Amino acid sequence: MNTLIICNPDAGSVDDAAALLDRLSRVDSAIVKRTSAPGEATMLAHEAVHDGYDMVVAAGGDGTLNEVINGIAEHTEKIKVGLVPLGTGNDFARMLALPDSIDGCIDVLNAGCVRQIDLVRVTSDQIRYFVNVSAGGFSGTVGEKLTAEIKKSWGPLAYLRCAAEALPELRAYRTQIVFDDTSVLELDLYNAIIANGRYVAGGTPVAPEAAIDDGLLDVVLVPEAPAGNIAVVVAQIMLGKHLASETIVFRRAAKVSIHSTPGMWFNVDGELVGNDPAVFEVIPRALQFVVPNNT
């Protein structure tokens, strides 16, 4: 298999870039290219499709994976995707049950077991694709504060640090949500979470029942509520026990449209992309993802 590895040497868990590149050379028939600027992984992945590679591997964090996904999203039938998680959160790697070690992930890539998983397209002020989670409202405010420097220095605690900083800016958004072009909800929301995967912020199970190959999005909405109720919900989310809460609104749909006043900023797999109106649509089992053979 002809493989391109797109490596972000500045990813959160990378201490020795030279040693990392040496270890990645264990991947069969692989060429490694390093990124040095935002957006470069998308460009390299797009080129990999047109250069005839069989597989492209994101060696980096969730942001690097998202860039790679966006580089191949229009040509998913032509190329497989792999992942060596090197970030601070590695939430999608957790969803795939990838090994904790780099060498273990390399063994997975060399084995070449493929699972078809859902891809999500979001259309707002631009078109973007993702595989894990998008969130708007309060999460978007947190995403604005979550810089690469904070991720690097705070590691898995970076999200909580920025959430605490953003709390004084907590506000409700008058929001209309349309599910599958039929069912309509109008709510005052603090947060809207559109999930394909289960985890965010280094393992928080924000959508604990989500499946990445069911053709559906798990939608978790946090309506405006008294501060005490929200504090309880936050604790429940940390434990993955929030879907049964009377404060939470939970739905599933293949297509979700969101429009709010004021407009929500959304992040996609941790990367801030733009504000609403936004339309989320599942492309069922579009990605050929290399995974452990027991998943």
The CATH C-level name of the largest domain is: Mainly Beta
Secondary structure tally, helices: 9
* Share of helical residues: 25-40%
Q: Strand-and-helix sequence, N→C?
A: EHEHEHEHHEEEHHHEEEEEHEEEEE
Give Rg in angstroms: 19 Å
Percentage of residues in DSSP E strands: 35-45%
Strand segment tally: 17
Biggest beta sheet attributes: 11 strands, antiparallel
User: By helix and strand content, what is the structural category?
Assistant: alpha+beta
Any key phrases for this structure?
295 residues, alpha+beta, Rossmann fold, 2 domains, 36% strand
Describe the structure.
It is a single chain. The chain has 295 residues and is α+β, with helices and mostly antiparallel strands. The protein folds into two domains: 3-112, Probable inorganic polyphosphate/atp-NAD kinase, domain 1 (Rossmann fold, 3-Layer(aba) Sandwich), CATH 3.40.50; 127-284, Tumour Suppressor Smad4 (Sandwich), CATH 2.60.200.40. It has helices at residues 17-24, 40-50, 62-72, 91-95, 102-111, 138-145, 148-154, 158-166, 227-239; strands at residues 3-7, 30-34, 55-60, 80-85, 114-123, 127-130, 133-137, 173-179, 183-195, 199-200, 204-205, 217-223, 249-253, 255-261, 265-268, 271-275, 278-290. The strands form three sheets. Strands 5, 6, 7, 8, 9, 12, 13, 14, 15, 16 and 17 form an eleven-stranded antiparallel sheet that branches. Strands 2-1-3-4 form a four-stranded parallel sheet, with helices on both faces. Strand 15 (265-268) and strand 16 form a beta hairpin. Helix 2 runs parallel beside helix 3 (62-72) and helix 6 (138-145) crosses helix 8 (158-166). The model has no long low-confidence stretch (mean pLDDT 85).
